[in-house]
Amino acid sequence: MSTVVETDVLIVGSGPAGASAALALSTYGVPNIVVTRYASLADTPRAHITNQRTMEVLRDLGVEQEVVAQATPQHLMGNTTFCTSLAGEELGRVRSWGNDPLVQAEHELASPTRMCDMPQHLMEPVLVNAAVARGTRLRFQNEYLSHTQDADGVTATVRDRLRGDTYEIRAKYLIGADGGRSRVAADAGLPMGGQMGVAGSINIVFEADLTQYTAHRPATLYWVLAPGATVGGIGAGLVRCVRPWTEWLIVWGYDVTAGAPDLTTEYAESVVRKLVGDDDIPVTVKSSSAWTVNEMYAESYANGRVFCAGDAVHRHPPSNGLGSNTSIQDAYNLAWKLKLVLDGTAHPRLLDSYTAERAPIGRQIVTRANRSIRETAPVFEALDGLAPQTPEQLWANIAARKDATAAAEKQRAELREAIAFKAYEFNAHGVDLNQRYPAESSAAIVPDGTPDPGFPRDPELHHQPSSRPGARLPHAWITSGSRMLSTLDTVGRGRFTLLTGIGGEDWVRAAGAQEVEIATVVIGPGREYEDPYGDWARLSEISDGGALLVRPDGFVAFRHASAAPDAGELLADALRTILGHA
Ligand code: FDA
Fold first, then answer.
1. Contact between 4 and 10 (Cβ < 8 Å)
2. From ligand 1's centre to the CA of 12, what distance in Å?
């Protein structure tokens, strides 16, 4: 065995976390290699909900339009339906994923992007193709086995599964994006909290033309309350649209203490029949697999030169559709920091901010996703369906809601309320967009002395913009000549950006005098960018002569409310702190 390859960053895994880390690093010009165990990318749909924050990341990385072209659009995602089977009785719907008119307005105001449904087997090729086109070296059928690290780098032992031999890759940094059974995270000794294997679940991928049961109430998710639906799983039986309205994925639970059932085609077909409810429709089962619901997160995402991202450090059920979104966002947070450390601009201690910023988000989404499962119980409770009972009893309870009795009216109200409460799973816009990195925990954020505005509205349901350091730059439509663009379009591309207005000339000069590249954006009448709607003036929370310094990942790192004659000094101080030189 000899060292055959050297690189700056070795990435283990080509899922959403690894592929987007590779894409970002290659976009920033950082040499990287991806090793991935299998001969192909994901061959089943898995993750699909792609939220606005992820679309913003993809927009910055130049692949947003490719994703939009392949994804199911937002307006076909929204009628999350609760029913006894697709062909059976409908119990209610909740307008989801930004399709409620009020929530839709919040989506439009929050971001230049739109949420969409992009199945993982389509997303991974987009990310990986772009990464490889920009320089990533990708090795399929190469399996990470172990690593050692020293003061200068990491040496990973890798097995080439095609040739059958092992070799070493020497890298300055290692990213473990190797999923929920991460060997890298285990080898790095990352401390994990929570529990694996909380419940058992089965995915069944199948083809069937279900247009007659779905096209009139287009949705990504159809939830089925059938006998047995509360055993294991993710709260109820689920028929998920992969491609409207012919490709599907069912999620069905099993008792984890009894072990997964034998996943024969007959068994899979029987579950499909139960949830579809129409035996005359031709069904082709493509695959089935068992997995477990997990409730686990890492307390630290790094050990020395080894960093983990994605499911390697947060393991949770698909509720709220947060898995690949958070994985992509982890990678985006890490990539620019690695770039600046590798090119000598930043001190390696900038990398400490990765755990400080992302671990609290990981814990939050693991908790949210598991809570969402538990919040499905009231839907069953409204039908008295949690108590052990025969199928006949469940059907009778469901039928009873149609009676003209006070009890039935109460049942109808409870059912409506329980279904509407699922907004915390299907319309949690705040969970998607309210991520903030407090200066108290992250050294890559410079406090500006203002009090934390918190979240006056429900932080899980409603996005609430802020330009306070640690918040994502608020989106506002501005113009440049005849072109309309988002404030978010002025930042990113691997560099810092300073936004100011009329009177902010000292800030512009100061930005040009720094060693690190800082793009400058001046917004105001007669300047390169204008604010014709006044949205930016309302959202920026600074005076015209003030400044926001935005990190390459779109988060505000430093804010000064007004013009400052000593802008040069203030900015240099801020950068020293952010880049770990203070
Ligand atoms: P992921 O598991 O995708 O990738 C790991 C990679 O590492 C793979 O390429 C693997 O081959 C490789 N690997 C592993 N060990 C290796 C080794 N030793 N050497 C080399 N390579 C190795 N999420 C979401 O955001 N929205 C959603 O709607 C859903 N829905 C959903 C539905 C269902 C049914 C499931 C099961 C899951 C979801 N998810 C989801 C979750 C989502 O699939 C998951 O969070 C992401 O795939 C995580 O991405 P990662 O890149 O971290 O790991």
1. no
2. 12
